[in-house]
Batch of 2 targets.
Target 1
Amino acid sequence: MSEKKDEILYTYASNVYLNITNACPCNCEFCIRKTTDKVGESGSLWLSHNPTFEEVKAAVDSFDFTDHDEAVFCGYGEPTMSFDVLIAAAKYLRQKGIRTRLNTNGLGSLINKRDISKEICDNIDTISISMNASDAEKYEAIVHPVFGIKSFDAMLEFGKECRKYTENVAFTVVDVISDDDIAQCKRIADSLNVPLRVRKYSTEY
Ligand code: SF4
């Protein structure tokens, strides 16, 4: 395990990532947190505390974005667990002319006990939601959300709501599930008018 702490901003494969919380209501079978504490050349992505907006701002300000026009909120945790910092940081990045992307488990409205889809879409340019499975039972078996069986429908609802506010929303699945399951995920995504992206399993969060 690497020693460095509080790696709020790191780069991997030419992307810039913002690690704003380690908190997450899930325990996905494939979560890279089970196997490593770093991505690429990053230091440890375990944070000593949830960064404040001022700490995220300082990390952004100390990074040279000359060769980058986008920053990706992508945990080592679920970014919507730190919702106020997420929105404040997204607004700040937009002010600086930097596009933003959110990689999320799609449970942010359950986490925050209100529908956050509009605020997310108003402030973040691209939303990527992990669908992970083709039905509620399989989802629960893979993701192990603290919210239980209702989580799958809540994740789909979040995608559906986001689609009202932006075209730049997609569901994702990792190619570790069966072709039949991927086909079913595609049918669900199509029914919600949201694209489905199939990702190769990798160490990218
Ligand atoms: S939602 Fe993301 S951070 Fe949370 S357990 Fe799943 S893969 Fe890991």
Target 2
Amino acid sequence: MTQVKLPEWGKSKAQILKMMREFSGQDADWRGGKTWSLVYHANEETLELAKEAYLMFFSENGLNPMAFPSLKKFETEVIAMTAAMLGGPEAVGNMTTGGTESIMLAVKAARDWAREKKPGATAPEMILPLTAHPSFEKAGHYFGVKSVHIPVTPDFRADPQAARKALTNNTIMIAGSAVCYPYGVIDPIPELAALALENKLWFHTDACLGGFMLPFLKKLGRKIIPFDFSVPGVCSISADIHKYGYGPKGASTVTYRNSELRKRQFYVYADWPGGVYASPTMTGTRAGGALAASWAVLNFLGEDGYLKLADQAMNLTAKLIDGINAIPGLKVMGRPDMSVFAFSSDTLNMFELGELMEKKGWHLDRQQMPPALHLIVTPHHARMVEPFLSDLRSAAAELSKKGKSDASGMAAIYGMIGTIPDRKAAAQFVLAFLDDLFKVK
Ligand SMILES: Cc1ncc(COP(=O)(O)O)c(C=O)c1O
């Protein structure tokens, strides 16, 4: 294994920046608009403002809001704006480092709430649609809450009947997505939350993806299944600023219907010689830059800006969906509620197609069960709709000429992982891969 040590003598700033620029040459080309995941870009002005605001508060630490009243102002105002947007002007919450942390905090709060309200639930369980984000699984793994999966109906939305059947004396929580990552559809939140309310359970809406899109789509006149605090029974909502909020990486929100529910999120240790330790979220030190840049972006874009961006993303999505459905052999899965969707095929090997597109410079996430390719559309993709469709058309034609053949390279690996019947073995395979990935080469 290659050994990398701290250099004996520091290098110059110019040298370091030059090296870093070179390294970035290997990265997914999101600036060129060829990346369909991981980066949410509105426009240059928004990005530049976010960077400037981030740098202005680069060193400040959000752990102690008393030391930095500016950060407290940013965080509480970002949460107030988010809560009002999500139909809960009275709701409270905190900023976190991302969707995963927001979801983990909500699961932890629900667990601790249930310990008081439902002491009979000695082995707590949460009911999750199959399409719920894996961060719920991670939360369950960390906090000892077992996930109980329910299937989705043919439109890829959670099945409320199945949720009812999955209830046990140990159920403490039900969750739904608005929208789910794999297919971009909103679960039937009103039915699921009503079931939670009827059974005195916590309900969480995961609006990490849709939180900063759906409220604007509704204002633009689109029919949106209610998902926010306007729905009785919704206790908490996660909504990410670093996705369609177009903020800096490391910025999400978790909001609760009231302070009584949020109380279980906080952590306080009063007996430490270092002082009384009070931490609102999972991390200790909190990057002031992320709080500041989020506040800056929300105020810069305003409702008007978000409405325009949401409209643009939806227009591009409609063109992409029509274009993909017109390619022989390809079909968009379900009817996406926003600018996130997957497409699949009955005849073509989707992983081979992903590889062919990769060779043409496009970065698309792969899905499994069934194999599919996934797109997250932002206004930044405007120039790329036609080039993308044209490359996809030729890649699909090339593949169908070749006929069904065994996949090779990465396509074979994706296919193999998706079809290993023993899912624990599949996870073991990926664990070994991760171990190798995070080594210096
Ligand atoms: C629906 C949904 N929930 C949660 C998450 C987790 O967010 P993060 O990657 O910011 O932790 C994602 C990420 O894509 C998501 O799409």
